[in-house]
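name: query_chain
kind: protein
chains: 1
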Amino acid sequence: GVVTNKADDGVKISEVVKGTAAEKAGLLKGDVITKLDNKSISSPEDLMDAVKSHKSGDEVKLYYLRDNKKKDAKVKLGETKGDKRTFIYKNFKKFFRHFFMIKMNLNFFL
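structure:
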C-alpha cells in the first residue's frame, strides 16, 4: 500500500500505508518506483495494473530510486480489500473538477 504521484522517472511515493507489504519491504516516502518485475511504471495506473496482474501472496521484484540511486526489493504482495486506490483516484479527480467548477461559478457571480 502506497499513495503515488506521477514523476519523471516513474511514480513517486507520497505515503506508505502502515502494515502493508510496501512498508515491510522498506519503501519510504520520496522513493520513485520505476519497474515491477518486467513492467515499466510511468503512472499510478501502471502501478495498479502491474500489482493487479498478480495474486495475493505472489512475490515480485520492485525497482525504485532512492536519492537518485537505483535499488530493488522483493515484495510479497498482501491481500487487497477492494479497489480502494482506483476508487479514491477516480473520485478525487471528479471531486476536484466539481469543486473547481463551483468555485468558478461563485467567482462569476461575486
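note: Confidence is low (pLDDT under 50) at residues 82-91, 97-110.
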